[in-house]
């Protein structure tokens, strides 16, 4: 992968990775001399690992490259020296020279922290995590001469782990089970995802627990073909944006999408990302997308995206680059990833979403999740009675016009304490308490979004709602 960049003559590259040792092993390619520098060992030849120049000073190391044709200097942790003006200057002075002699500076860094003065010279590349074949190699290395078979299922399952994490997980599986048991790897992966602080495995919702929303369900079911063996001719769906008032089942539908596709569900916690420092949030977002890529397939669920992405410049509330960086990376990744992913993003307030997010082609569809129609309310009542053991009669379908799924659920719960009549009397639905907002959102959706709800009775439903909400 690095070869194309070197052939194209990029003189300064930044390889983002948490695995500097693996980077040294996998990044080499024919046609260049690869050397590595760090501030403790100086400059080493990667063939044989001998120190060829005892240069510890970063400025001297950078200048070493000026006189080294066809050399790639892999500089470890150079970003830690960017506070020194001479380091920045040496790179600025060197880039044209390196380009002319076919050399390049290849920074190995866990984070994107390039000073403004150098931004335009550096090109960022992610070091992909080990693939299935590499995972099998790791298994072979661990077993050595022992008579233990490698396990391809486990190797595939381990994708998303770094080499170090995979080694540890495989060794742990051997100690615990005597084989490369897939269950151990699943546990380790779950922990790893949680440890990242950004993502969590989430239990997919059963499709039977989602009342109505059949237009959305159909849409997803029809697109699922693109992810099958016969799906090569179809453009791969990338994501669906669900907009609507709170409690209408946007999150629930996102969770059920994982059941429809039979994929793991990963929740990406954008709030946790936002609190990071400038540069740090982009690094963590890159790390998250790299792990997702390595999973191969997953539904990525992101709640209330408008809150998370409301700091980009175009939203008028810039936070100095924190959000813009992670947002930009996320959108690029979404467009370019070759993994089978479907992003399910939910939003209550679309006016806060940056326009880049909404532009055509970004999401395969924007769905408006409206208040449930009579048929949907009937289904939701049945679901809630089953779930909570309540006894809301189906005759309540009409009385619950204007109530969201979440409100019908609350009614089911309250009725167990207060009796159905009292519980109903005490409940004020959002469509009444926030009438203007609900109407505004509907107005917005009329021309800009598809309707996620079950189409049955829509004419009637619209009429009733206008009367009630107007
Ligand atoms: N269509 C539905 N079918 C079944 N249950 C529903 C439906 N809509 C809402 N619910 C119930 O209400 C709960 C809350 O809904 P959910 O969190 O999915 O709404 P939301 O639209 O994502 O709300 P928010 O915008 O506040 O995140 C669900 O967990 C579910 O129990």
Automatic annotation (TrEMBL):
<dbReference type="Pfam" id="PF00004">
    <property type="entry name" value="AAA"/>
</dbReference>
<dbReference type="GO" id="GO:0005524">
    <property type="term" value="F:ATP binding"/>
</dbReference>
<dbReference type="InterPro" id="IPR027417">
    <property type="entry name" value="P-loop_NTPase"/>
</dbReference>
<dbReference type="InterPro" id="IPR003959">
    <property type="entry name" value="ATPase_AAA_core"/>
</dbReference>
<feature type="domain" description="AAA+ ATPase">
    <location>
        <begin position="236"/>
        <end position="373"/>
    </location>
</feature>
<keyword id="KW-0547">Nucleotide-binding</keyword>
<dbReference type="GO" id="GO:0016887">
    <property type="term" value="F:ATP hydrolysis activity"/>
</dbReference>
<dbReference type="InterPro" id="IPR052381">
    <property type="entry name" value="AAA_domain_protein"/>
</dbReference>
<dbReference type="InterPro" id="IPR003593">
    <property type="entry name" value="AAA+_ATPase"/>
</dbReference>
<protein>
    <recommendedName>
        <fullName>Uncharacterized AAA domain-containing protein ycf46</fullName>
    </recommendedName>
</protein>
<comment type="similarity">
    <text>Belongs to the AAA ATPase family. Highly divergent.</text>
</comment>
<keyword id="KW-0067">ATP-binding</keyword>
């Amino acid at each position: 992968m690095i070869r194309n960049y070197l052939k194209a003559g990029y003189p300064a590259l930044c390889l983002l990775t948490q695995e500097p040792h693996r980077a040294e092993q996998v990044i080499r390619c024919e046609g260049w001399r690869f050397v590595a520098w760090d501030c403790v060992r100086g400059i080493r030849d990667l063939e044989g690992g001998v120190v060829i120049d005892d240069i510890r000073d970063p400025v001297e190391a950078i200048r070493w490259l000026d006189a080294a044709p066809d050399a790639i200097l892999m500089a470890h942790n150079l970003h830690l020296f960017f506070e020194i003006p001479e380091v920045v200057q040496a790179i600025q002075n060197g880039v044209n020279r390196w380009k002319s002699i076919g050399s390049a500076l290849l920074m190995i860094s866990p984070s994107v922290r390039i000073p403004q003065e150098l931004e335009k010279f550096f090109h960022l590349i992610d070091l992909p995590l080990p693939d299935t074949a590499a995972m099998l190699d790791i298994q072979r290395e661990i077993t050595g001469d022992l008579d233990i078979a490698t396990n391809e299922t486990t190797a595939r399952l381990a994708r998303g782990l770094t080499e170090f994490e995979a080694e540890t997980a495989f060794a742990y599986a051997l100690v615990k089970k005597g084989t490369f048991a897939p269950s151990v790897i699943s546990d380790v992966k779950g922990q790893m995802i949680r440890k990242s602080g950004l993502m969590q495995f989430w239990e997919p919702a059963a499709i039977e627990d989602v009342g109505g929303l059949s237009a959305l369900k159909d849409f997803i079911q029809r697109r699922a073909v693109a992810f099958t063996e016969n799906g090569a001719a179809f453009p791969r769906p990338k994501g669906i944006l669900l907009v609507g008032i709170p409690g209408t089942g946007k999150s629930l539908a996102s969770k059920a999408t994982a059941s429809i596709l039979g994929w793991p569900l990963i929740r990406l916690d954008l709030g946790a990302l936002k609190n990071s420092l400038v540069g740090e949030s982009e690094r963590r977002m890159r790390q998250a997308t790299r792990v997702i890529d390595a999973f191969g397939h997953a539904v990525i669920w992101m709640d209330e995206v408008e809150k998370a992405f409301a700091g980009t410049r175009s939203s008028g509330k810039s936070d100095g680059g924190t959000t813009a960086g992670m947002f930009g990376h996320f959108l690029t990744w979404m467009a370019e990833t070759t993994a089978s992913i479907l992003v399910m993003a939910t939003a209550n307030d679309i006016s806060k979403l940056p326009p880049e997010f909404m532009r055509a082609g970004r999401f395969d569809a924007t769905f408006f999740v409206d208040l449930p129609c009579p048929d949907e309310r009937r289904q939701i009542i049945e679901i809630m009675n089953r779930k909570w053991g309540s006894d809301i009669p189906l005759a309540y379908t009409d009385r619950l016009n204007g109530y969201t799924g979440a409100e019908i659920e609350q009614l089911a719960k309250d009725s167990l304490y207060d009796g159905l009549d009292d519980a109903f009397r005490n409940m004020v639905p959002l469509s009444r308490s926030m009438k203007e907002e609900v109407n505004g959102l509907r107005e917005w959706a009329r021309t800009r979004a598809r309707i996620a709800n079950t189409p049955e009775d829509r004419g009637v439903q619209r009429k009733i709602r206008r009367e009630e909400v107007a």
